[in-house]
Amino acid sequence: AGCPSRVIFLGPMSAAIISGADDLRSCFHFSSIMDSNLPATVTPVSALSEQVVRAFFSAHGLVVVFVPENEEIPGSYWGESEAGLIGHQLYLRADTPVHSALHEACHFICMDDARRQALHRDAGGSDTEENAVCYLQCLLADELQGYSMRQCFADMDAWGYTFVLGSASAWFERDSDDAQVWLRGQGLLPIVTIRS
Fold first, then answer.
1. 8 A C-beta contact, residue 145 and residue 98
2. Helix or strand or coil: residue 127?
3. CA 10: distance to chain centroid?
4. Closest by alpha carbon to 130, among 148, 147, 110, 153?
5. What is the Cα 147 distance to its own chain's centre?
6. Residue 74 vs residue 117, higher pLDDT
């Protein structure tokens, strides 16, 4: 949901470049480069301990549901191997990228209870919230045993996120002010607090 894993990603510095765009989300979708030929050299959830994965997302209010190989992932906004989100259930398959699982989990974390209760596939939210979700997934990557923020940056770049500043790390470090302000306003920075 929200920011796709293969997309031209635009931070606040890029807003001035887009003339006549009333909705940046439409620009995200228009610029999407969903292409099966993109490199898939990213970390799958199968590279991590199942126990670690379940415990990590459980601490954030989510129940992980593992989907059998080759079966469609329920609640997946983009299909393929992307994580799915329905209510408080996070659907993963062995080939689901860890960054995708983190992204959907962060959508859940950033929602209020009313949105969580109605949650099915599309997380919705504003463009600034989408930026905040991407920022938070990078932060939480450092808290997930067997993964890291740097690996998340590398996976995002390899998967097809394209940033005006050239990389996920550059966006995170130099073009994410709006995301940080949004997260602070929600009480999610500097310490992530889970709202249940």
1. no
2. helix
3. 14
4. 110
5. 15
6. 74
